[in-house]
Design brief:
By secondary structure, the chain is an all-beta fold. The protein contains one helix and 16 strands. The protein has a five-stranded mixed beta sheet with strand order 2-10-9-5-7. Strands 3-8-6 form a three-stranded antiparallel beta sheet, with no helix packed on it. A hairpin with a 2-residue loop joins strand 14 and strand 15.
């Protein structure tokens, strides 16, 4: 009698999303592989490992490139992607799913979101002197900040204390307000 095995099926292959420097389990919500006739024989081999992190099998904490894990490791949420903390916004790995008779390669995507606790970083902050009766335009040469993951035009500067002598002016509008917001585009 000739046994015919069905190929393993990848039911779901969604991008894993996690924060920079964090670890996340590969669950069946992002990677769901099934085999109806011999699931115990299905292996997933890391053919091309991620470049900005690593796949790790917890609790052992390491899974070298080109290593294998089984479906039961995925089902038990023991396989994690651990990001290396770099400023990368995405990563990927090539995985090969095999039951010993059939195999297929899949491209597994990882999306890395910047951490929300990364605040603004001051790039330029200059002390300036304005002659009496004079005017100075505040540009990125005078003050500039960056917020990781944000466009320069999205950075808002707030003047919380009014100038001791003089006034601030935005787009030809003079203000006496003590708390005053402007951005790079202004």
């Amino acid at each position: 009698m000739l046994l015919v095995f069905q190929a393993p099926r990848v039911l779901k292959n969604e991008a894993l999303i996690l924060a920079r420097g964090e670890a996340a389990a590969l669950t069946n919500l992002v990677l769901d592989i099934r085999d109806s006739d011999n699931p115990q024989d299905v292996t997933v081999t890391v053919v091309d490992p991620p470049h900005h992190g690593q796949l790790a099998r917890f609790p052992r904490n390491t899974l070298p490139a080109a290593s294998m894990f089984k479906l039961e490791d995925l089902e038990g949420e023991l396989v994690h992607y651990v990001h290396d903390g770099s400023r990368s916004s995405e990563d990927m790995a090539v995985l090969q799913v095999s039951d010993g008779y059939h195999s297929q390669n899949i491209l597994f995507h990882i999306k890395i979101a910047p951490k929300n606790n990364e605040g603004p970083q001051l790039v330029t902050s200059s002390t300036v002197w304005v002659p009496e009766g004079g005017m100075l335009q505040i540009t990125s040469r005078v003050i500039q900040a960056q917020v990781p993951g944000a466009r320069d035009s999205a950075v808002i500067y707030t003047i919380t204390d009014p100038p001791l002598y003089g006034t601030e002016q935005l787009t030809n509008v003079v203000t006496d307000v003590w708390c005053y917001d402007f951005s790079e585009k202004n």
